[in-house]
Structures are given as structure tokens and as C-alpha cells.
Amino acid sequence: MDISKPCFFVGIGGSGMMPLAMILAGRGATVAGSDRNLDQGRVPAKFDDLAAKGVALFPQDGSGIV
After folding, report:
1. Does residue 65 form part of some domain?
2. Which of 3, 8, 20, 66 has the smallest number of Cβ neighbours within 10 A?
3. Count of domains for the chain
């Protein structure tokens, strides 16, 4: 996979997307994503792990896609 291009994951807090995002971020890719939990003001600890890896997090309202 070409990690020189940014990756955006919809549902980044899910059991499938989160591990992929963590792996890519760990390999140096620019990773961002959205999740419905962020829309609803719920921020489980798992999002702290993503943020610590430099993953940009957005509510699932399209605001993270440019």
C-alpha cells in the first residue's frame, strides 16, 4: 500500500477500521477518520490511542473530507 497518500476512514472507531488506522499511522501514513461517537459527544478511550498516533478525528458529518 502506498502510504505517501493520506487515508481517511469512515467509522474509524470500529473493530475493523481502528486496527487498520493504527497500523497505517504506525508506518508513517497520514491518517484521519470520522465516527458517529464523535457526533454524539461520546469519546471513548480508544480515540485517545488514535490521537496519540497523530490520527486526526472528525465527527461523521463530512467536515473531515476536503
Report:
1. no
2. 66
3. 1
